[in-house]
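Hi L.,

You mentioned the student needs an example of a multi-chain input paired with its predicted structure. This one should do, with 568 residues in total across all chains.
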Amino acid sequence: MNMSTVAIDLAGVKKSFGDKLIVNDLSFSVARGECFGLLGPNGAGKSTTVRMLLGMISPDAGSITILDEPVPSRARAARVRVGVVPQFDNLEPEFTVRENLLVFGRYFGMSTRKIAAVVPSLLEFARLEVKADVRVSELSGGMKRRLTLARALINDPHLLVMDEPTTGLDPHARHLIWERLRVLLARGKTILLTTHFMEEAERLCDRLCVLESGCKIAEGKPDALIDEHIGCNVIEIYGGDVHQLRELIRPYAKHIELSGETLFCYVPYPEQVRPHLSGRSDLRVLQRPPNLEDVFLRLTGREMEK
Amino acid sequence: MDGAYASVMPANAYNWIAVWRRNFLAWRKVALASLLGNLADPITNLLGLGFGLGLIVGRVEGTSYIAFLAAGMVAISAMTSATFETLYAAFARMDAKRTWEAILFTQLTLGDIVLGELVWAASKSVLAGTAIGIVAAALGYASWSSILFAIPTIALTGLVFGSLAMVVISLSPTYDYFVFYHSLLLTPMVFLCGAVFPTSQLPESFRNFAGVLPLSHSVDLIRPMMLEHSVGDVLLHVSALFLYAVLPFFVSTLLFRRRLLR
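Structure written out for the whole complex:
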């Protein structure tokens, strides 16, 4: 890729804490205007990767480039054009919504007047117009996260880095964040997000990379990954004798995976299997299209923690 | 590695102002309570000890005890204001409140943050120290103009003790460790450095040791100013305070790097 069209480039990045390898030989590139996901369970190395991208910690090996600036050596210059939504809320609880934006704008060297000029559009974007003069401690979790998003936009960044942007939010608040992020993508922003929500990754990401124990185990477009690794319908079966069910379905399945007490059967023609399961009141059966959860299960042999 | 250390130092001469203004905005919301809380203690000490003990003590170094004590209380309140602001408020912003973390996502460096916090701590020292000075002047134990002249020393004292407290918070896992610094260093300094009684009362070995402690240098500058005596060894005292402010600043910034940026 031509550098000017690349927002993020990681090559051979490694990081250990003590003798524990956290990120192992990670490489990926994110094009400008793209939404790229880092997907993986807790402890896969997502947050460490984000901290390295922002220049908070230095990689032991490899190179990182953010918006054409080498990181960590010129991370400060890069951060001028980056907005960050951190995993843990670090808003100022005793300040109002407006004051939070004011204080944060000053960290970017913006004048009070310049901040005042952009605050109305940010409040509108975050749907917080009526909360402008309310203290942050009185906001709901979803409002706080939207304010964090608005705060990350105060310096009009080219790139947004979001660590678990919807973790801990209820479904309604989560959908509102997703909708806001799509608006940002439509405006041409680049987004890098980490998530352990498969649905989030499928809905938002143009491309993603799946991390497991610090290693990249897959990379691509969500649809392509699902096609490549699964490529057929899934029947989930809960209950009954697992061994017996396996034998019953094996002739029709490309692959069968057991996770916890649930049997995941990857079957090209589910209508061939369903007659064998009908009338079994001891089973709970769910037929559905494949998703990234299945990809992760297929690649690692285990489910991602929810 | 030089680049890694340079990257945490202040990026320029003005980035710290944004941090100072953040703290000022937070303080403004609780200014009245904060002022009363910070001033009640030293003023009670000044009046209680000054009038109470003063009756027994009589004159000290050619002046009334309360006038002698007033200068010491100005230095002590400058010391405690900056210390407590840093130990408790700055520690909370660095640790539990994650304020520093949010700032580190912007174009400010760790050094910018520490510098902003230090100047803020010194600002609170100026407020507290000057207020004690005003009480002393109103009671006729110091001249009004001498309070004005003492302000730079009060500010420098605030920088020194803010800076030393930064080292403490950069090393302390929790609030519980602050008590060691407080009991083993600050409280002895109050008695060793001539703030409440003349150091001539101390055995010589103690006196020599006390002479290098930062509070001694503050007291030796502030007291002659407030009593309108000539100030001796100005360059020595100012340079000593300057070193006590600057060295811990660099040490604490590097320690914060080890603590936060890893």
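You could point out the following to them. Chain A has two domains: 3-221, 232-289. DSSP finds eleven helices and 14 strands in chain A.

Best wishes,
N.
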